[in-house]
Amino acid sequence: MKVSLTRYLVEQQRAKGNIPPQLRLLIEVVARSCKSISRAVNQGALGGVLGSAGSENVQGEVQKKLDIIANEELIQANEWGGHLAAMASEEMDDIHVVPNRYPQGEYLLLFDPLDGSSNIDVNVSIGTIFSVLKKTTPASDVTTQDFLQAGRQQVAAGYCVYGPQTTLVLTVGDGVCMFTLDKEEGAFFLTQENVQIPTETQEFAINMSNMRHWDAPVKRYVNECLAGTEGVRGKNFNMRWIASMVADVHRILMRGGIFMYPWDKREPNKPGKLRLMYEANPMSWLVEQAGGASSNGQQAILDIQPKGLHERVSVILGSKSEVDRVTQYHLNTHHS
Ligand code: P6P
Hints:
With 336 residues, the chain is α+β, with helices and mostly antiparallel strands. It contains 8 helices and 17 strands.
């Protein structure tokens, strides 16, 4: 029997009480937005949606047309429902407070509307990443400060990967489940529950072209992987780098592995390339909920107290034994 996303959420609430109606509405609206984004992505050149929009985002990155389409879709779909107080996006400098003409809710939604943009025009998997927090000050007006909560405060997180299948991956703190889009019915159906990342792995994901810029612990770890059976690891490793975090993380949730986008000396004052609030935090919670680990080399990413909406972080996540090893190498360096 096929279990739809709505049925799953209703039954999860009945069993565990961790998806109150407003949160269920939020998740369903985000899923519906991902369906629309998937349709636009699948149109590609036929829909005139490829290429650049001729503008830049707060990160100073060229925006693709689909970045803007996806951002607009999530804003418009989520602002009227009464479940949200405000939204934050990689594509917007400031938070988007729900307009006065609509009721405000207690949830805060953060998202990277279309992650992996460099892959859009070459038909490689991309995705939407989202994270849900609760307003900490019910009374006062929502401000950016309300968003600056550590990743452990998330109440829901997930992504939708637009690949050979369109798959929504979700956690509300009770494990990770996956829903695949049935395009004929236009609905997501449960295809995996209680996802578990294998603790051991022999597959690492990192952009090797940056090797000369890495810090010593990362160089040590990757060189040991490359040494294979002739080195201290005593086994051979495989390498993957899709350059879409959503696709790399999905592979890791499905078959294990370690993903690294560490600090490097190209821009030493930046802790890393990836953003904490709407990329690293949701992905880190999913990975931990699936039995993996996620660190910035010094501490669990979910424990980092954010200082800015768009702050970046060094990311080392995936199979627990490998992440622990890389973290240990960092700690050894700082102690010696
Ligand atoms: P690089 C995509 O632009 C992204 O933010 C992540 O999805 C991906 O993991 C990373 O950047 C790829 O970066 O430097 O390898 O192109």
